[in-house]
Amino acid sequence: MTGQDTAAHGWDEARPTARLLLADGTLIEGQGIGAEGIAAGELCFNTAMTGYQEILTDPSYAGQIITFTFPHIGNVGVNDDDVETINAAASSGVRGAVFAADVTSPSNWRATRDLDAWLKARGIVGVAGVDTRALTALIREKGAANAVIAHAPDGRFDEAVLKAELEGFPGLEGQDLVPLVAATQRYEWDEGGWTWPGQAEPGAYGKRPEGEAKRVIAIDYGLKRNILRMLTAAGCEVTVLPPTATAEEVLALEPDGVFLSNGPGDPAATGAYAVPMIQGVLEKKVPTFGICLGHQMLALAVGANTQKMHQGHHGANHPVKDLITGKVEITSMNHGFAVDRDTLPETARETHVSLFDGSNCGLELTDRPAFSVQHHPEASPGPQDSHYLFHRFVEMMNKRA
User: I need a surface site. Which of 154, 275, 355, 362 has the fewest CB within 10 A?
Assistant: First the structure.
């Protein structure tokens, strides 16, 4: 039957309007969603069943394309409260997104917009209708791959342009991506945790508890909003400084503690300017707490090394064991680099390990008041398994005082 015959009978099949091209030549087609255009990045997968808006606005995903293994993404829409990006001037960290099922209309009382329109507004290119579990198996076998994602409503793509975009992407190793997402100036933060309807004003974020507060300087390598909320809820008065802040600038504010945030890219590259500041703070024995990239920065500051992982850890179902308490926590993770435990000095003790692959997930210094974790304790997959770490930080500051 000819094309004219099928058109006459209404049997035309929809032309694919999006493509995902991997560095090994694998080509995947689907239906475009979100922004039109082309974007290159490192392809990873995330196994979380909830929190897709948090994932898509996490600055730590700068330079990456996310494959969601859970099929129902977008079903509760989006809202302004669940955005994790703080720097409104920064572009979205994530370069693209891959979905299994078509995005449906939102069905949640908090939704203010559907996911497709929101992706367009944030400039995120997406493709739906992909066998994401098969794609995940490919990533597990071959490792995180460089890829290019493209969306063209007419279904026409320039193969040469796609390949050139892919070949021009340098990968994440050796890349300092923090300047793309971090703050460029100092600011104060006083927003606390979420208050559910019926407890106070409906849908309200609280403020810092009354009483004496600990002055915390948070270094922004790609900070998430909820980390700042957790610090505030724990009783901290928070001032945020850009990632290029020096030890002299930090210490001049007379902090009770210093917080090292999450962020994207290769920690060794960011460490070129971040490590000297951290070393200066540690020298003065100021209590220090790091999360994700901040954990890696602390490790580098005491002489350890980091290494690129085969596929990374991205999801909200990662079991981590606290070696101090013996407790197992269900955590949220997002990292493609890890601390090499074999390079930790004698003054650094491993405190947490992943029960998936045994990789390092935490450390503490034995000669200075400092500790850090690889996972995200501000997230709630457990749902509050790791919240105690913020209170441990406050206790550390109280002990020093």
Answer: 154
Q: Choose the catalytic residue: 318, 335, 376, 387.
A: 376
Beta strands in 47-159 (DSSP E): 64-68, 96-98, 125-128, 145-151
Beta carbons of 40 and 171 less than 8 angstroms apart: no
Query: pLDDT by residue (tens digit) across 92-130?
Result: 689 999 999 999 999 999 899 999 999 999 999 999 999
Burial class (CB in 10 A: 0-12, 13-18, 19+), 120: middle
Which of 44, 361, 378, 387 is an active site residue? 378
Helix (H/G/I), strand (E/B), else coil: 210: coil
Angle at 349 between CA 343 and CA 355, to 5 degrees: 85
Low-confidence stretches of the chain (pLDDT beneath 70): 1-13, 88-92, 197-204
The DSSP code for 29 is E
Verify whether residue 364 is a known catalytic residue.
no
| Contact by Cβ (8 Å): 313, 339 | no
One of 54, 292, 295, 313 is an active-site residue; which one? 292
Active site residue 376: yes
Best CA proximity match to 26, nearest among 180, 174, 148, 195: 148
Peptide bond into 383 cis (omega under 30): yes
The question of whether 335 is a catalytic residue gets the answer no
Find out whether 319 and 331 touch, Cβ atoms under 8 Å: yes
d(CA 318, CA 8): 53
Instruction: Tell which residue, 281, 288, 286, 200, has the closest CA to residue 246.
Output: 281
